[in-house]
Amino acid sequence: MSTAVTAHRAVIEAGPGSIRRLCCGTSGVVDDELSAAVLGAIDDELALVGGRPVAVDSLLRAALRSLDCGSPAGTIVVHPSWWSASRVGVVTAAARTLANDPNDVVVQPRSWLLTQAAPEAAVVVEIADRLVAIAGSEVEAVPRGTEPQHVADEVAGLIAGKAAVVLIDAPSKIAGAAALATLIAGAVRRRGTTVMEIVGDARLLRLAKAARSVPDEPAEPPPAARSRAGRHVRLAAAGVVLAAVVAGVAMGSHHGIPAAAPTQHAPTTFLVEGRVALTVPANWPTQRVVAGPGSARVQVTSPSDPEVALHVTQSAVAGETLGDAAQRLKRAIDAEPAGVFVDFNPAGVSAGRPAVTYREMRAAHQVRWTVLLDGAVRISVGCQSRPGHDVLRDVCEQAVRSAHAIG
Predict the structure, then answer these.
(1) Which tens digit of pLDDT belongs to each residue from 165-200?
(2) d(CA 254, CA 26)
(3) Per-residue b/e over 202-237, b at no fewer than 16 CB within 10 Å?
């Protein structure tokens, strides 16, 4: 008769506000500047450290290596439960360089650690800089761009009826986390749900020490995050620079690559970039594009077809109207060769939201652009697909519908 083998592993926290060792005898912390550089550039290839560009994977490996206490059984790395698959992949690859055997590294969502002291049915509320994630059978998120009490009430509304017990994660490195946790606890209790505890740093350390004995096999991957935040959009203004539009078309044709399969049933994640958050496919790689023509942007690309992608740009604006933005954009389009930008609509509707809409036609693909505004932030979402293959309709509508400012 065989018995399950357990291992006593070191536990390392990677995000949301710090990179540190949670157990293994003595504490270990990566300094704030390096942690901020790594976590802030986790979706990029390069990060700026002391004014110098450094490869993110190299920085992350060095940070994790500095925390390695040589546990012969390996390491558990915990990450925010709402992170995308691409972020988790970056951390996993870096963590596996700590061990001779990749199986000695277990990567788990933060909710796994927090629920070690709670019933199976507990829901975990994780407070981050720009959002609050609710990790239960699925992961949902509420942006922190509004008044804290409103955020707390919205979180409580999402939890209502889903769980009997709630744990609230309040990391000390996240500004305002403790105060917001108290508001969320009050809002949750008013709706009849029990708050088991607010987990601060000291409690998290104790949980990590107790959780060092785990099965050798990693747990099932966490459910992908999706946004369920309320979006009462104030459509007062919008605008766009044509260069940002052209930026998303610098790809060559890839003959023989089949069109991507429809993705309406694919898991999603809550992408946070700058002052904007939106819902995107969880398994699509995300990168910031800062070189080449056009404005800096985020590109989220289908893993099965490089010609299928979402493009997101943003700008802080004030005092403009949607009509003003449409006029500026129309002048820029009129200066381009005929047939490149078509179907221009200065008063369009996309996913139920008033917007400036148009299409950009290229040899290898087309991009359907939606320009809208949430408060003082202009958001442009480009949905790129091969000509005649509108496989992004559901993905695009979801991205446009969910796009909103987070402060």
Answers:
(1) 999 999 999 999 999 999 999 999 999 999 999 999
(2) 53
(3) ebbbebbeebbebeeeeeeebbbbbbbbeeebeeeb
Token pair 């996240």 in the structure block, residue: 174
Terminal alpha carbon distance of the chain: 58
Tokens 């008044």 sit at which residue? 147
Task: Say which DSSP state 229 is in.
Answer: -
At residue 103's C-alpha, the angle toward residues 102 and 108, to 5°, is 100
Angle of CA points 25, 26, 27, to nearest 5°: 130
pLDDT tens column, 283-336: 898 887 766 555 678 889 999 999 999 999 888 787 788 888 888 889 988 888
Backbone φ and ψ of 350, nearest 5°:
-135, 125
pTM of the predicted model, to two decimals?
Answer: 0.67
Output the CA–CA distances (angstroms, integers) from residue 7 to 4, 73, 311, 316, in the order listed: 10, 6, 44, 50
Length of the chain: 407
DSSP for 244-262, written as a single string: HHHGGG-----TTPPPPPP
Cα–Cα distance measured from residue 374 to residue 142, given in angstroms and rounded to the nearest whole number: 15
User: What's phi and psi for 246, nearest 5 deg?
Assistant: -65, -25
The pLDDT of residue 237? 23
Query: How many CB atoms lie under 10 A from the CB of residue 65?
Result: 12
Q: Which residue has the tokens 């559901």?
A: 394
DSSP 158-197: HHTTT-SEEEEE--TTSTTHHHHHHHHHHHHHHTT-EEEE
Distance CA 14, CA 56 (A): 14
Spatial separation of the C-alpha atoms in residues 230 and 153, rounded to whole Å:
11
Encode pLDDT of 133-157 as tens digits: 998 877 888 888 779 999 999 999 9
